[in-house]
Amino acid sequence: MSGERQRQTVAASVSQRADNAEGQRGRAGGARARIRRHAERARDAQAAEAILRAGRVAHVAFSDGSGQPYVLPFTYAYEDGCLYLHGARASRTVRLLRAGTPVCVEVTLLDGLVASRAAKSHSMNYRSVVVFGTADAVADEAVKRAIFERMTARYFPDRRAGRDYTPARAGELRAVELLAVRVEELSAKVRSGPPLGPHDAEDEAVGSRFVVLLPGVDV
Ligand SMILES: Cc1cc2nc3c(=O)[nH]c(=O)nc-3n(C[C@H](O)[C@H](O)[C@H](O)COP(=O)(O)OP(=O)(O)OC[C@H]3O[C@@H](n4cnc5c(N)ncnc54)[C@H](O)[C@@H]3O)c2cc1C
Hints:
Layout: H1 3-18, E1 27-28, E2 42-43, H2 45-54, E3 58-63, E4 69-74, E5 77-79, E6 82-88, H3 92-98, E7 103-115, E8 123-137, H4 141-155, H5 170-175, E9 176-191, E10 210-218
Parallel strand pairs: 1-9
Antiparallel strand pairs: 2-9, 3-4, 3-7, 5-6, 6-9, 7-8, 7-10, 8-9
Residues 57, 70, 72-75, 86-87, 91-93 line the site of flavin-adenine dinucleotide.
């Protein structure tokens, strides 16, 4: 099966439950995903997708129904409106998400530490995304294998199954659950630039101001 065909198959297989009201890929700025503080830092869905494709660590948040929220870090891949997570079938996160528990995922790239002349104006430059959705397990073995191999290639761009590492055996694939989180809503927020304290633009003012560049560090 070609890569494009496999992607379409996954998208079709996960779309039934998770399609949003508009029947389209996750939209930015819905009720849950409206940025209130510094709304001018909000970015559109395209920018959000670019951040998701660049990030490496997803913070996956859910509740087990007791009212206690949990958040755990995961590796992930983002393709065509789906965020893919994986883990042991017995993992609590996997069990709850597979059962349809709503999930919220956050990815942040930290671009800089921003020092201001004023205490209250110290800040950070970042690109971050919050995703809301629900997950379905990817059952098709060929589709699952292809997604895992693309996920590996995302972290290790030059490595290929069969050339640089032994492909997963069928039993190994079955032992791991691959979840496709269909993005229902998402938001992106970006801060960039210098400190914005009341005296940060004045060269002669008291104190110092600077930005420490941390290009795209995952946090
Ligand atoms: C960068 C990164 C990437 C990861 N990628 C994956 C992945 O792709 N798939 C995967 O299955 N796991 C991944 N992990 C591990 C993952 O975060 C969990 O530890 C694991 O999935 C679930 O473990 P558990 O079943 O013991 O957790 P649970 O039973 O769900 O957790 C029980 C408690 O253990 C503690 N706990 C669990 N995990 C962590 C943690 N990472 N750090 C601190 N406390 C924790 C928390 O207090 C949690 O409430 C990753 C971890 C990191 C740091």
